[in-house]
C-alpha cells in the first residue's frame, strides 16, 4: 500500500483490475479523468477540490458512471460538492440530502454514498427528482 499526493493519475490504466481506489487528501478537481476500471467498486475522493461549479460535477459523475460501472461505494466528504454541515456552517441536512439524490440519480449502482447506506426510498426519490436536486443557494 502506498500513499501519494498527486494531481495526475497517469499510469493508473495499467491497473485495469483495480477494485478499490483511495484518492483522499489530494488536489483533484472536477477535471479528474480515470481510465476504464470495470472492477472498481470502491472510490474515495475525500478532501479534494471537487465542486458543483457550472455543471462540472455532473460531468464528473457521468464520467464515473462510464468508466467505473461496478462502483458501489463513493465518498466525496470534505469537498465543496458535498454540502456537509459539519464542514460548512451554511449547509444543512436538506442540502446534503439533495446532494445525495443528485449523485444517486447519476450513479445508480451505488450502495453507499459517503458514510451512509443508500436506502430504497432514496433510490426511488433519486429516480424521480434526482436530476433537479443540485444544491444551489441564492447569494
TrEMBL record:
Gene3D superfamilies: Ribonuclease Inhibitor (3.80.10.10)
Record-level GO BP terms: melanocyte differentiation
The organism's place on the tree of life at top rank: Eukaryota
Protein's name according to its UniProt entry: LRMDA protein
Organism: Elachura formosa
Amino acid at each position: 500500500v502506498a500513499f501519494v499526493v498527486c494531481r495526475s493519475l497517469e499510469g493508473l490504466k495499467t491497473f485495469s483490475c483495480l477494485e478499490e481506489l483511495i484518492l483522499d487528501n489530494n488536489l483533484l478537481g472536477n477535471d479528474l479523468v480515470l481510465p476504464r476500471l470495470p472492477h472498481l467498486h470502491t472510490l474515495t475522493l475525500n478532501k479534494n477540490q471537487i465542486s458543483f461549479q457550472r455543471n462540472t460535477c455532473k460531468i464528473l459523475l457521468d464520467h464515473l458512471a462510464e468508466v467505473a460501472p461496478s462502483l458501489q461505494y463513493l465518498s466525496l466528504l470534505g469537498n465543496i460538492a458535498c454540502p456537509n454541515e459539519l464542514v460548512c456552517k451554511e449547509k444543512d441536512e436538506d442540502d446534503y440530502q439533495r446532494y445525495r439524490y443528485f449523485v444517486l440519480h447519476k450513479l445508480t449502482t451505488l450502495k453507499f454514498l459517503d458514510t451512509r447506506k443508500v436506502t430504497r426510498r432514496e433510490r426511488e426519490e433519486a429516480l424521480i427528482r434526482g436530476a433537479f436536486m443540485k444544491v444551489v443557494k441564492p447569494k
